[in-house]
Write a structure and sequence with these properties.
By secondary structure, the protein is α+β, with helices and mostly antiparallel strands. The chain has 12 helices and 8 strands. Helices cover 69% and strands 13% of the residues.
Length: 451
């Protein structure tokens, strides 16, 4: 049932992809759908689930009878015979027969000719195995759940990478746009400074400041374009697309939606890594039951029907049925040590679970603190941006009126762009931390829908 839902999900993704190919924009949610359908790691993980489901179906067959057909044809070096002529001669002597061979005949009897064969239909079925069959089936069911958890963990890992790469591209593009705006502003200022110099309104040194600033702005713009190209390539490779349309998802405005303790509770109750450890604990407990089953006898039924035979005079039986019992009473203390080893595995998993819970609780706090820090940074930068815009306006007016310098205009422009760039980076850091926290707490769909 679970695998069929995976198949339906993949079918939906493929249909979605077919309608998306010619789209001009892509959202984070659409990018995730495409990634899960095209990324090699995601597809390989889904095949692992399918393989494990088939193995689970195979394990169920342990409860069913095994039916087979077998055949044998033999050629011996000579017939199997019983020579009783010596006994015949003894009988002839007792009976006073002068020529026993002539009177009593040849007593060399052929029991089995050298060419023989037979074919049969066979059936066998276990009745009781000390609980091993039930334990093996339960273990197979847990392994299937583990493979599904591993698949979900792989999807979560890829989704967290996608969130990072997606917002890296958005950060790079917004930084490029900001660098472009700075370049155009400095270019306009350079033209204005050149014009003022030509009209004798400012000294030449003011134009030199503008030219240096223009060169720096151009260099920063070229670097920003390279960053966009690199981020685009990374996202294309992750999703598996030849091209990336415009990313339309916006950065979420920083906010703290709920207290840290609630995020930590969600982490401990919904995290897939902890659910995987829980399944491994169940599997370890099943391992103890499997080893304990060796203390009990194994009981099974069997039957055979011989439907063809050739030259088998001594085997007139057509069929037989039987009941088999095997009980191993002593095997060199192997069972005892295997049981102890299985119990140690339980203890091992329990310790892993304790440490994983501690690690995840601490990591949740780290992500939460990152969100809080970026929220504080963003709010502070909003205030700074208003002041920087006012400063830029005043410096520009002062330059135009001849009471300010070109250097002051350039400094004000760069200060404003630096603040705006820090704002974009704060948005990026907040969204990546928040997205990772939501994925780890099983709230991926909620995060994608917000975006």
């Amino acid at each position: 049932m679970k695998l069929s839902r995976i198949g339906i999900k993949l079918l939906f993704v493929l249909v979605f992809f077919a309608t998306f190919v010619n789209a001009q924009e892509i959202t984070l949610k659409q990018a995730q759908y495409l990634m899960l359908s095209k990324n090699g790691e995601a597809r390989a993980s889904s095949f692992e689930v399918k393989a494990m489901e088939e193995e689970h179906k195979a394990t169920k067959g342990l409860r069913l009878p095994t039916v087979s057909i077998s055949g044998t044809y033999l050629h011996l070096d000579e017939d199997i015979s019983l020579d009783l002529n010596t006994q015949r001669n003894m009988v002839g002597g007792l009976l006073s027969i002068p020529d026993p061979a002539a009177v009593l005949g040849d007593w060399n009897i052929t029991l089995q000719e050298k060419n023989l064969g037979f074919a049969s239909a066979n059936i066998s079925m276990p009745i009781f195995a000390g609980g091993k069959i039930n334990a093996v089936n339960k273990a197979s069911e847990i392994k299937l759940s583990l493979s599904e958890n591993h698949h979900q963990l792989k999807e979560d890992e890829l989704t967290m990478n996608l969130i990072t790469y997606f917002f890296q591209l958005k950060l790079a593009k917004e930084a490029k746009n900001l660098r472009k705006d700075v370049y155009e502003a400095v270019l306009l200022h350079n033209k204005q400074a050149t014009k003022f110099f030509e009209n004798g309104m400012i000294p030449e040194v003011e134009t030199l400041n503008a030219k240096v600033a223009l060169s720096n702005a151009n260099r920063e713009l070229l670097a920003a374009k390279k960053d966009v190209a690199l981020a685009t390539t990374a996202l294309k490779n992750l999703i598996g697309l030849d091209r990336i349309p415009k990313v339309s998802t916006l950065f979420l405005e920083p906010t703290i939606v709920k207290p840290l303790i609630e995020f930590q509770n969600d982490m401990l109750s919904e995290n897939k890594q902890l659910k995987t450890i829980e399944k491994k604990h169940e599997l370890a407990e099943i391992g103890v039951k499997v080893e304990n089953s060796d203390y009990y006898p194994k009981v099974g039924v069997m039957g055979r029907y011989v439907f063809w035979k050739d030259n088998l005079p001594l085997a007139d039986t057509k069929w037989f049925v039987g009941l088999g019992v095997e009980w191993e009473l002593f095997n060199g203390f192997q069972r005892e040590h295997k049981i102890k080893a299985s119990k140690y595995k339980i203890s091992q998993v329990e310790e892993i679970d304790k440490q994983a819970r501690l690690n995840l609780t601490t990591y949740t706090e780290k992500l939460y603190n990152t969100m809080e820090k970026e929220l504080e940074q963003y709010e502070s930068l909003n205030t700074d941006e208003i002041l920087a815009q006012k400063l830029k306006f005043m410096r520009k007016r002062a330059f135009e009126e001849g009471t300010g310098t070109s250097l002051e205009v350039v400094d004000a422009t760069l200060k404003l762009s630096e603040i705006q760039l820090h704002k974009i980076k704060a948005l990026y850091e907040y969204n990546v931390a928040y997205g990772e926290l939501m994925v780890l707490t099983g709230k991926t769909a909620s995060f994608l829908n917000q975006n």
